Amino acid sequence: MFESMGSYLRRERELRKITLEELSAQTRIRPEYLHAIEAERFEKLPGLTFVKGYLRAYANGIGLIPEEVVLRFEGYLARLSGESRSLKPDRKISIQWKWLLLPFTLLLLLGYLWLR
Predict the structure, then answer these.
(1) Cα–Cα distance between 86 and 77 in angstroms, integer?
(2) pTM summary value
(3) How far apart are CA 101 and CA 9, in angstroms?
(4) pLDDT band at 38, cuts 50/70/90?
(5) 95-103 long-range Cβ contacts below 8 angstroms, 24+ apart
(6) Which of 52, 49, 53, 51 is nearest to 92 (CA)?
(7) Rounded distance, CA 82 to CA 87, Å?
(8) Is residue 42 very low, low, confident or very high in pLDDT (cuts 50, 70, 90)?
(9) CA distance 4 to 111
């Protein structure tokens, strides 16, 4: 059995005797976000892009290799894919789809009215 994402990060941080307050000051990540990361409450964070950025900063702050931590997180996400927990999508992505949907809908409506 493997160690959970949050437990792994907390263990590595504690081994290096770094407090969350020290890590927050170093990375400029809010302490509540660091708590959420260690508790695996990623849905409390702003979005997937931010989560990965926070994980990179966290890893740098405690001396881990950021790319390995992000890969471990992506594996965590793959395991969660069948569960109900989810992350907030990036806001940019959802906004882009809304702007693409509007002209497409208008074109369909105009085409319908033209062929009528």
Answers:
(1) 9
(2) 0.68
(3) 40
(4) very high
(5) none
(6) 49
(7) 13
(8) confident
(9) 53
